[in-house]
Amino acid sequence: MTEIASPTVKVSTRPAESRRDIGIKRRYAAERRFRFYGIIAIVIGLFFLAVLLWSVVSKGYTAFLQTTITLPIEFSEKVIDPKNERATDPKQLMSANYPLLVREALVKQLGLDPKERPLVKQATDMVSASARTQLRDIVVADPSVIGKTIPVTLLAEANIDSAFKGQIDLKVDESKRKVKDQQVAWMNQLADAGALKKSFNTGIFTFGASSRPEAAGVGVALIGSLYMMLIVLVLSLPIGVAASIYLEEFAPKNRLTDLIEVNINNLAAVPSIVYGLLGLAVFINFAGLPRSAALIGGLVLTLMTLPTIIIATRAALKAVPPSIRAAALGLGASKMQTIFHHVLPLAMPGILTGTIIGLAHALGETAPLLLIGMVAFVVDYPGSPLEPSTALPVQIYMWANEAERAFVERTSGAIIILLIFLVFMNLGAILLRRRFERRW
Amino acid sequence: MKALKLTVAALVASAAFAGAAAARDQVQVAGSSTVLPYAKIVAESFGEAFPDFKTPVVESGGSSAGLKEFCKGVGEDTIDIANSSRKIKDSEVEACKAAGVTEIQEIKIGYDGIVFATDAGNADLALKPEQLYKALAAEVVVDGKLVANPHKKWSEVDASLPDAEIAAYIPGEKHGTREVFEEKILAAGCKDAGALDVIKAAVSDEKQQHSKCVAVRKDGMAVDIDGDYTETLARIASNKTGIGVFGLSFYENNADKLKVATVNGVVPSTETIASGEYPVSRPLFFYVKKAHLGVIPGLKEYVEFFIDDQMIGPDSPLADYGLVAAPDAEREEIRKSFEAGNML
User: In chain B, which residues have their Cβ closer than 8 Å to the Cβ of A209?
Assistant: First the structure.
């Protein structure tokens, strides 16, 4: 800067033929250096991004595949409803011994002796324990299947799934791993017969939490996050925009508004756990709202997002040239008309960008949710925001702490899902900005 | 106060989800991360076995945090059950009483073993509490005097141990596991090593003697792990000679990556822990609010389902996961005590 900013031209005392030294080489070199630093900074950033993405994707892509076993299940009446009571007692279908059906099908498929109990148990251990509910749901939905034999695609147990994906080192001693040699032999036998194969894992999107990795998914967490994002959007956008319009356009400039401004900027930097404590004290202990509910999560995240939105909106309003305001006022528009007809539309791209960035930030937040009981094992889908649910980043955190090998890939899989959501939100921000952008 | 309440109410109403909070029809559980995997298995099986009830919600967060929530009071907006990897403290019972939670039922679900393990590539390891104490205590006895722990390598503690720098990943102070580690390893090792006698000669107060025994060195050789066992596993993966503390069930799920150490020559397993041969184990509990039984739908059924032999027996999903089942007579006693409504 100093090189350029010297308005006083000195009269050269040197002979005319030698050019005046204006430091052009030095200045070009400084610029080249600066460009080089910039490129280095970007390369470092991209390198770490690549490392992060590579580590997540390479570990996580297998989570979108799930090993399944297709078995011809005989829905034998003898097992499901031995006394033929289903017409009078619907509970009969709920509590029948469905795992027995799987066992019989496996015994037949693998040609085992049903009397060799330890061997049969090893075989049935290959199929997920969630087969019980799966078969029950089939029978309850359509009791006419009783007595028929139909092929059913069952989830393979998590350790078989991991072994089939090659994530368990089969060279270590059999006693030191969860998959036995016999099970591996059966696994290969079933795979050769085409019964056992990998297919796209829709369950990771639809299932709720589960202690069985193969039956665990982010379904409940997605719904919980969706509820919370809706609440945050519905509450923080109007409140934030209204507050900033008032502060920016109407409020008198005095000590009080300065104080408010300092506080808003301060709140934007407060650690999110503090908002969790506030939520626990106000919404749960004082207002008596239910624990673990998405509503409280949404309210807490709203409080957390508000300062971000207010700051972004005020900046966007400030960036609208004063000439627009002056012109509108000059043509006889009221102050309110000026703001809503002219200033706000022009500030829209900035406001929307700020809001979406605030939302994306709220989507990835776990700390405040810990204190209001949303870091929880929730199996059932929440029917409303008042029912217990959990959130996407919370699900990642909980899976990361699981002991089972199969949760390692699912953790990364859930991170991929979260990243995809964030990419879409940021893309939306860019598109909205393009859509509303005006130049003058 | 009224204005605040109004604001809160307005906030809630403006969320556009009308309707007052309906009566809770779901059991809510919070507490220990050690008990969490077991509680999850039970909650999930409960939801499957009792389609009339919703699946209980199990929160994580640690024994102390769970008991704190538990002692907030009685009513629908408080939790029903607190999982704990240690017995409830007297101070917590007092806090509960002060908040109106006077009727607490204690239920022991079984035992959890604590194992020492190192990377699978290492040689077999045989540990004794005495050696661990000498390696990890803040102060040890050298030539009859209490000095700051001078040991840098395991082999300096005992020639039978590997010639590697001491690095131990032990549970942080917020974990219930830490208490067991202190009691069963450090305090026992302190006694075995003869350090207790020296400490006794120096300090008269019994509490101080104990805290001197269980003080862990703070020079970076014993690392507190405040996260879960996955963090310990990651530390061991990056420092192959390090020794980590794990729960038995976690070890069994990762036995291909870890080599477990014997303690006093006993290999940890559900059998040796149940028989009491393996010294480092502890009981796991959960606490039930008696006032909620019969009020929260499914609570009584959940507790009964949990303590049934099909969940905590020797041949049950919890035992498969790594829980050490209590002896037959003790389990019978647990069920009877719950039926009878025995309280703390």
Answer: 40
